[in-house]
Structure formats: C-alpha cells, structure tokens
Amino acid sequence: MHEEFTSGTPRRGFLGRIAAAAVGLGAVGLMPVPARAAAATSNAADPKLEAWFGKLTGKHRTVFDAPDANNGMPAIWPRVYLNSTDATYPGEHAVAMIVLRHAGLGMAFQDSIWAKYPISEMFNIKPDGKTVTANPYGTITGLPIPGLGIAELLKSGVLVGACDVALTIYSSGAAGKMGMDPAAVKKEWIAGLFAGIHVVPSGVMAVARAQEFGANYIFAG
C-alpha cells in the first residue's frame, strides 16, 4: 500500500498534501458551493449583477423559478417559505429570490404598462378568465397571509429578477403589433418594472447562478 494511506502517515501531513494538490490543480470543483461562487465573482462581466446574487446570504436560501404566472403562485410561495422557515428556525435568516422568466415576466410590471400594452393577453394572465388592464399580482389580497404579491415581496427584501431575453422578445412582439419602435418599447417596459427588480441576462442563467450561490431550487408552480 502507498505510504500516504498507511496508519503511520501523520494526518496533518497527508491533509496538507491533499490541499496543496487541490490548489495546484485549480480544483474549484472541490470547494463548497458558496465558495465556488465567491471564487468566480472576480471574473464577472457585470459586478452589479454579482453583487445582487451576493445578497443570497444566511443559512436558508431559495430561488423560485417562475416561467409562468400560474395564478399568482410565484408571488405567494416565497412569503410562505419565509414565514414558515423563520418561525421554524428563528434567528437563522432565510432569503428568497424569484426569477420571472418566459410567461412569468408579466408579473413584473406596474399597472401603467398593463394599461398601455396587452400584457394580460400576451402572458395569458386572466383572473377568472377575463382580460385585465392592471397587474393582479402586484399586491395580492383576500388570503389570511399579509405581504403577498411581487411589489409587497420586494418591499420586504425578497430578490426579484426579470429575464432580459423575455423582455426583448415580448416587447418586440408588442411593438410589432402596435406599430411602435421595439427599442423604445423595451426601454419603457424596463422603466415600468416594479422598483427593485433586477434585470438579469436570462432567466435560466439566473436560476442556475443562484444555485451556485447556495440557493435551493423550487419551481414556483
């Protein structure tokens, strides 16, 4: 048997050689998940984006993947998660992130965008089967849980990202139907996001990156 695996090998020396080998091989993959994310931060093209992901701190962290409005559930489950986690593990700090992508993007807009553009139709968000001209999921009432809705979650510190790819595609589609300039429509849509929403390069990238920062994945369905 090789001497490094014999009982006579000093533990400190053996572990030291393992650590040195890891450094020599650039073994980032052997690091814990949060450490891998921190190691990659220095190579980020967008420091502000990395700083946003860096807000995923605390012992309990979860990213909610929202590719569809799904009757407003992406704006409900994060509050349920935070309330129940904080009550079950007091003082351990829970953080939630929502990534609004694909058809879930419509939830990200203030009422002014809903009133001007056919958001309800484009994203098939029709409470009770009816087209609406205001965001029904900005603030959600009628349930015995306070703080529901995208706008309310943002106020309480929940991180919310909006997919730039979806923004580009859907705003371009709206511009085409309404005979408007696509660039101008996209600019207006970004300005019409709820305050605090961070535009991410793509929703799928953001969901993956959040997990590299140690967030658990939950489909917001």
Explained architecture:
The protein is of the alpha/beta class and about 220 residues long. It folds into 2 domains: about 1-30, no CATH class; about 30-220, Hypothetical Protein Ychn, Chain: A (3-Layer(aba) Sandwich), CATH 3.40.1260. The protein is built from 10 helices and 5 strands, in the order αααβαβαααβααβαβ. It has helices spanning about 10-25, 35-40, 45-55, 75-90, 110-115, 120, 150-155, 165-180, 180-190, 205-210, and strands at about 60-65, 95-100, 160-165, 200, 215-220. A 5-stranded parallel sheet has the order 4-3-2-1-5, sandwiched between helices. β1, α4 (about 75-90) and β2 (about 95-100) form a beta-alpha-beta unit. α8 (about 165-180) crosses α9 (about 180-190). The chain is globular, with a radius of gyration of 22 Å. About 35% of the residues are buried.
